[in-house]
User: What shape does this take?
Amino acid sequence: MAWDFSTEPEFQDQLDWMRDFVDNEIAPLNLFTDDISRQSWREAIAPLQDEVRSRNLWACHLDPELGGQGYGQVKLALMHQILGRVGIAPIIFGNQAPDSGNSELLAIGANDSQKKQWLEPLLRGEITSCFSMTEPHNAGSDPTMITTTAVRDGEEYVINGHKWFASNASSADFILAMIVTNPENPPHSAASMMIIERDTPGMNIVRDVPTMSHPYPGKFRSGGHAEIKFEDCRIPVANRIGEEGEGFLLAQKRLSGGRIHHAMRWVGQCESAFDMMCERAVSRHVRGALLAEKQMVQDFVAQSSVEIRALKLLALHTAWLWDSQGPSATRVEIAELKFWGTGILHNVIDRAIQIHGALGWTADLPLASMYVNARTMRLADGADEVHKSFVARKRLKDYSAVEGWPTEHIPTLREQHRQRFAHLLEQEVLNN
Ligand SMILES: Cc1cc2nc3c(=O)[nH]c(=O)nc-3n(C[C@H](O)[C@H](O)[C@H](O)COP(=O)(O)OP(=O)(O)OC[C@H]3O[C@@H](n4cnc5c(N)ncnc54)[C@H](O)[C@@H]3O)c2cc1C
Assistant: This one.
C-alpha cells in the first residue's frame, strides 16, 4: 500500500541546499531592494540565478522541453515552501509571479514564433511581463464583464479601454491582456489574449496605484499595480495568443497550478512568523514570567502550530491529487486551498504581531509587510468568496432533493429496517 510522506534523499539534498541558499544568500539581499538601482539589481541577482541554474533548479514549474525539470506539483510545492520565506526568492529561481503564470500560458497557447519572441527570453530571465485582466469599473470577480475592446483593422487590432491592478505593468517588457474581440459570442468566448509590448503608442500607463504596501503616489516601480488607459492602441494581429475567443480558456490554465505554489509559499511565511512568535515568547518577561508561560500565549503557539501543519498537508495533498489525477480533478481542492489558506496565513501573522506588541506593528520587523501581503491574498487571484461559492456549488451538485423526511430520519429508518431485525427485537422484549 502506497501512503508515504517521505521525500526521496536526492531531492531532499536539493531542498536542504535551497533552504541554506535562501536564508544565507537571498535573505540578506532582500533587505536592500528599495535602495538598489535597476542596473545594480540585475548585477546583484545574475550570479545567484546562475547558481540556481547550475543546480538544475531554474524555472522548475515548466516541462523539460521548455527548460524546466518536469518535477510535478508535489516537488514544486516543497520548493515553494522554502521560497515563501523570502519575498525575492522566486525571482532568483525563475518562477516569480506573474512571469511564471504567463510563461505557462505562452507555453500552452503561443505559436512557435511567439514563443521565440517572448517565451524564450522570459524563461531566460532577460525580460519581464505583466498580466492584465481587471478593470476599475467592472467587477473583476466576473471577467465576462470586461469592456476593453480590440477591433480588427486589416492586420492590426485597435485597442480601447481602461485596466488597473496590472501588477508590474510599469516595469514589464510586455503585457498579456484579456480583451474583448468577439462581443457577439457567448460571454465565455468573447475575449482573446493579446500581447502589448512596452512603449506601444496608445498604451498609456497612468500611474502605479497607491496601496497598503505603497500608500503614497510614487514613481513607476517593479511590484507596483498600474492603471492603464488604452487609447487607439494598435498592435499586430500576430500578437494575439491562441484563437479569437480563447481568452478565458487560456486565463484558466494560467492560474490553477500557481495557487498550489502560493499556498506553499504561505506555509513558508507562516513558519517565519511562527519562528518570530516563539522566539519572542521565550525571550520577553511580563509580570514576573515569560510570555511563553502565559496560557493565552500558549494558545497562540498551539493554534498556529496545528494550523500551519494542516495547511501544509492540504497543499501537499492537493499537489499529489494534481500529479496523480490531473488538473481538472483538483479544481475544488485548489479553490478550498485558496480561501482557507489565506485565513491561516492572516491569523498566524496576526498572532505573531500581537505577541511582539508595538514592535510587531513597526516596519523594524518583516511582520508588517507580511501582514499587508496576507490581507492582499484574500482579494488577489480571485476573492475568497468567489472560491467559496465555487466549492459550495460543486459540492452541492452531488446531492438531490428528497420528498418528505430527510434520508437520515430515524423513525423512518427504524420502520424500514424493523423487519430485518424482528427476531432480535422480540428476544429483547422477552429478556426484559
Ligand atoms: C495586490 C493585488 C494584485 C493584483 N494583481 C492583478 C494583476 O496582476 N492582474 C489583474 O488583472 N488583476 C490583478 N488584481 C485584481 C484582482 O484580480 C481583483 O481585485 C479580484 O479579481 C477582485 O476583483 P475586484 O477588485 O474588481 O472586486 P469585485 O469583483 O468588485 O468584488 C468585490 C468583493 O465582492 C465580493 N464578491 C465578489 N464576487 C462574489 C461572489 N460570487 N459571491 C460573494 N461575494 C462576492 C467579494 O467580497 C469581493 O472581494 C490584483 C489585486 C490585488 C489586490
The two ends are 48 Å apart (CA to CA). The chain has a mean pLDDT of 93. Strands lie at 129-132, 149-153, 156-167, 174-180, 191-197, 203-208, 225-236, 240-241, 285-286, 289-290.
